[in-house]
């Protein structure tokens, strides 16, 4: 079961890292106004982190989980989904510098997934 949960566990560790990276890059004014220093995040990003981790805990696909973007169901509220998309769009390319193995494995998984979808569509 340990191997089956590994993607879920990785995502659980990486979401806060990506949100911190986003917050440091995009919310400089908010962090300054709130007196946030160091590796902490602004209130909005803390809320998003808590929400994302809560939704991940509630995920019905923990076993053999792929990335949320691959999921058939979307459990985020629309506004939170837009926020997490912005985080992923900003942080994703920057992850290559800090987490290169994760970033590259994500790209490989995405390519495989898209090929599978294309093959399934061609069968129909």
Question: Notable features of this structure?
Answer:
single chain, 124 residues, mainly alpha, 70% helix, globular
Walk me through what this model shows.
The protein has 124 residues and is mainly α. Helix 1 runs antiparallel to helix 3 (43-57), helix 1 packs across helix 4 (78-98) and helix 4 crosses helix 5 (100-123). The chain contains five helices and no strands. It has helices at 6-26, 28-33, 43-57, 78-98, 100-123. The model has no long low-confidence stretch (mean pLDDT 84). It starts with 5 loop residues before the first helix and ends with a helix. It is 70% helix and 0% strand. The chain has one domain.
The end-to-end span amounts to 34 Å
The percent range for helix content is over 70%
Mean pLDDT: 84
Radius of gyration: 16 Å
Residue runs with pLDDT of under 50 for 5 or more positions: none
Q: Kindly name the structural category.
A: mainly alpha
User: What sequence of helices (H) and strands (E) makes up the elements?
Assistant: HHHHH
- Number of DSSP E strands: 0
User: Total domains, how many?
Assistant: 1
Number of helical regions: 5
Largest sheet: none
Q: What overall form do the CA principal axes indicate?
A: globular
Q: Report the β-strand fraction as a percent range.
A: under 5%
């Amino acid at each position: 079961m340990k191997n089956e949960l590994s993607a879920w566990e990785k995502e659980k560790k990486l979401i806060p890292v990506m949100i911190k990276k986003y917050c440091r890059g995009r919310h400089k004014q908010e962090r300054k106004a709130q007196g946030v220093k160091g590796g902490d995040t602004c209130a909005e990003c803390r809320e998003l982190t808590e929400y994302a981790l809560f939704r991940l805990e509630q995920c019905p696909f923990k076993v053999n989980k792929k990335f949320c973007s691959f999921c058939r169901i979307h459990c985020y509220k629309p506004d939170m989904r837009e926020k997490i998309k912005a985080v992923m769009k900003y942080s994703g390319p920057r992850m290559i510098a800090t987490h290169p193995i994760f970033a590259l494995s994500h790209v490989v998984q995405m390519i495989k997934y898209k090929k599978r979808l294309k093959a399934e569509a061609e069968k129909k």
